Amino acid sequence: MVACAGMPMAPSNLLSQILLMRTEQWLNPAELERRQWSRFQRVLRHAYDNSPFYARRFRDAGIIPGDIRDRADLSRIPIVTRRELRHPEELVPDSYDPARMKESFSSGSTGESVRTYFDSNAWRLGKHLLKLRARWACGVRPWDRAALIQAGDFSNSEFRRRILRQQSFSVHGPVKESLLELREFAPTVLYGFPTHFSELAEICNQDITPKCIFTSGEMLEDGTRRKIGNAFGAPVYDIYGSTELKEIAWECPRRDGYHINSDWVLVESVGEHDTIVVTSLYNYGMPLIRYELGDTGKLLDGLCRCGRSLPLMAPGVGRSVDYFQLPDGSRVSPYTLVNNVEVLPEIRQFQILQDTPDRVVVLVVPGPDYGDGSAERIRGAISDDLPGITIDTRCVDEIAREPSGKFRKVLSDLPRDESKT
Q1: Alpha-carbon span 114 to 224, nearest angstrom
Q2: CA separation (Å) from 227 to 201, 210, 254?
Q3: Is 248 exposed, middle or buried (0-12, 13-18, 19+ CB in 10 A)?
Q4: What is the pLDDT of residues 57-74, one digit of tens each?
Q5: CATH number, span 2-125+242-320
Q6: 323-419: which CATH architecture?
Q7: Rounded to an integer, what is the distance from CA 393 to the centroid of its chain?
Q8: What number is the average pLDDT over the span 21-31?
Q9: With respect to CATH, is domain 139-234 assigned 3.90.1150.10?
Q10: CB 349 within 8 A of CB 381
């Protein structure tokens, strides 16, 4: 098992890797941190020696891998941004062929589409094994029937349906049709976007009785979590991840925070606005070292009551680009705005958009109780948090999801350099 701590393993070591991952979450925190740092140093040296992109970046910064001795030195390594992933082949080491690797594509909520390549071991670990560990911790077992609500192309083969006991459903179809399809499949586990489950919760009438629900890809506010949990009679666990790095952190049944998969990723919260920066410790095919996701979040002190030594984090409720900018240059967290609007009972769905530096528009899909005073109540709910900004409301029949299937309750249309300070 010691060999697992370094370079990617051959497929014949799959069982050893599964056992290692199940063991490492319970290690002494000091030993877990030692293994994390050892893996970080190895992927750092690998990138420097084999990737022209990182060799150039290090040279320009005037450092070599040996200069990075502990976490205090991490800030010396230049951050990789999403913009630099527009040509991902430049990050791939010379010994790897992108045409022979797995790939993931993100349409990009910031307007910057990216493609990420994974070597075979990294794909297996990031796409499957890390998820397996987290889902097992929440009570999922091989005999469960899992329904995945997702966007894009997918295949529901007989093997997948009958043997793996999984089936995918489109997030883009009418909610009533989705409910009928789910009822026929009778899943015991649900995966999908919080807003889709929130819509299903309004009409499900306990037609579906899963034992647990997993959400990801969007903000999950406390009110939405309660609404989903109460409607389906099941606990809701949120997952934090990205297309480029797969699963980063997850909630266990204790829900004291999100467990960081710190044995295989290194997460930092940097700067005044707690920007999340992540390093993959397992993808040697396309190293991502200090990659800025565009999200915000905090690293939490202490460990979870479950006893795992995996450290905890609290992801922010929106991408850093979606923090609203006030005329005085300060920023407002989307969490405050969303919480104040979602409690208004006459609103079925909403989206808060900052389209100019001095104006915010709230798009509203009205509920049955929406009336003459509703627009004023919406403005009053957020006006104290948006001084100097005009707040308009606009009723619409529906608010479209992004092509990725995500629904963003808060959206800034300001240029990125205007929406970040």
Answers
A1: 30
A2: 7, 15, 19
A3: buried
A4: 999 999 999 999 999 999
A5: 3.40.50.12780
A6: 2-Layer Sandwich (3.30)
A7: 29
A8: 96
A9: no
A10: no
